[in-house]
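To whoever is on call:

I kicked off a structure prediction for a single chain this morning and the downstream step that reads the tokens threw a length-mismatch warning. I double-checked the sequence; it's 153 residues and nothing unusual in it as far as I can see. Pasting both halves so you can look.
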Amino acid sequence: SLVVTTKEQFNPMSRVLNTNVEGNVKVMYALTAIKGVGRRYSNLVLKKADIDLSKRAGELTSDELERIVDIIQNPLQYKIPTWFLNRQKNRVDGKYSQLVSNAVDNSLREDLERMKKIRLHRGLRHDWHLRVRGQHTKTTGRGGRTVGVTKKK
């Protein structure tokens, strides 16, 4: 950008939602380092927070960072549509939410445990370390087992 920031204002590494965010990358792409935040979601968050997309992540003020974190954690309060969120109609409480950082891993683990517990076909496939989504498994994904025919003497 044409705006030159002084050395004191620039932060080469920021900590946002338990994730290190690179300071010399543009804000939209820097936020994608946070698990559960992709390019489209980070673009939408920055537009809702009225932050210039051409800024670098290190140029953000602490006030702007707080605004970004608040929007990421409470997307429905800022009129982000439910179809944009990564956790829709949660099985436990039926709510729509955006999961970020550690919550993504926790919910995935809980979902897999639930599937295994109720002996769902998908859960069993996960348990057996097999392909889950209907792929062919006759020849691919043999996972380190020896392949081939031994020759008789």
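Update from on-call: the warning came from a stale cache, not from the record. Cleared it. Sanity check on the structure: The first helix runs from residue 27 to 30.
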